[in-house]
Amino acid sequence: MNKKIFIVAVFIVGIVFLLALLFPVPLVKNGEHAVGSPLNATYLIDEKPVTLVGGKAEVELVPGSATKLKVSNFGEPVYGDIDSDGDQDAVLLLVSDTGGSGTFYYATLAINVSGSYRGTDTILLGDRIAPQTYYFQGNKAVVNYADRPFGAPLTTRPSEGKSLYLQYDPSNFRLIKVAVDFEGEADPSRMTLDMTTWKWIRTVYNDGTIVTPQKPEAFSLTFRKDGTVSVKTDCNSMSGTYEVSGKNIEFKDMATTLMYCEGSQEQVFSTMLGKVQSFLFTSRGELVLELKFDSGLIIFR
């Protein structure tokens, strides 16, 4: 009987050893906070390390306290090669919430180090700002967002377009704000709706959802001085009128052709336009249509 038990035990140990060889557990470099995804890396927020797991984290503000700092990734990481080493780094927006009325947005980078991602520190964008586009431009990361005018109460809708240009110091993984020569950049105060045909770039919802056109050149808006607007999609064309009052805008009497196109995003796009409430321009030459109830932004360029 004991011999049978011994044989079974040896068999089980052998199976466990074989599984360990076939499916090894990947090692995480905790010392460097380097992992295989930007959504699982460690970042410094207000000089405190925050390790994301699947894009989320909870950190005790005070040991033993029930109040926790909740951090989550906004939207999706955008990839590019900021250090010209041939691999893909990432720029992200992180959102922190302590349970109060504030919702704070931070810009950060995840640097690809030999196939693993190491997070940098973060730069605060503001409380309840409106994120827009973020991307790589050469050896810089660019973060565009809308904020309130200086001194405006937090109840004011973000309407002032801002851009943050970032690099990082490879010796300590700290972010560096880059001073940019703005000669040739757009002046939002001089931009008008009818100055160009606007191409849809993306829509960013406040829950972090991002919708991009599958055919980027297919979707556009053309405003005319007589109050009419033409809309092109990946299927039908639309036309109608628009009314502007200050920074508020409303589309009216929209008519469309009736062709059917399999897989078209036309309905998604037209639904967005029906929810537009206001607009603003950015120094990047973008038109931003703000959705009702602060639910999101449609970005055109």
Key features of this structure:
301 residues; mainly beta; Lipocalin; 2 domains; nine-stranded antiparallel beta sheet; six-stranded antiparallel beta sheet; 2 helices; Hsp_HslJ-like; DUF306_Meta_HslJ; DUF306 domain-containing protein; HslJ-like_sf
Structural class: mainly beta
Let me know the number of strands: 21
| Helix content, binned percent | under 10%
Cα separation of the termini = 79 Å
- Mean pLDDT, rounded to whole units? 85
Pfam family, one: META
Domain DUF306: 204-293
Protein name: DUF306 domain-containing protein
Question: How would you describe the overall organization of this protein?
Answer:
The chain folds into 2 domains: 34-177, no CATH class; 188-300, Lipocalin. It is globular, with a radius of gyration of 24 Å. Strands 13, 14, 15, 16, 17, 18, 19, 20 and 21 form a 9-stranded antiparallel beta sheet that branches. A 6-stranded antiparallel beta sheet has the order 1-8-7-6-5-4, with no helix packed on it. It has 2 helices and 21 strands. Residues 20-34 have low confidence and may be disordered. The protein has 301 residues and is mainly beta.
Concise account of the structure shown:
The chain is mainly β and 301 residues long. It is built from two helices and 21 strands.
Topology of this structure?
Layout: H1 2-22, E1 34-35, E2 42-45, E3 48-51, E4 56-60, E5 68-80, E6 89-97, E7 104-113, E8 116-127, E9 130-137, E10 140-147, E11 160-169, E12 174-177, E13 197-205, E14 210-211, E15 220-223, E16 228-232, E17 237-245, E18 248-256, H2 266-274, E19 276-281, E20 287-291, E21 296-300
Antiparallel strand pairs: 1-8, 2-3, 4-5, 5-6, 6-7, 7-8, 9-10, 10-11, 11-12, 13-14, 13-15, 13-21, 15-16, 16-17, 17-18, 19-20, 20-21
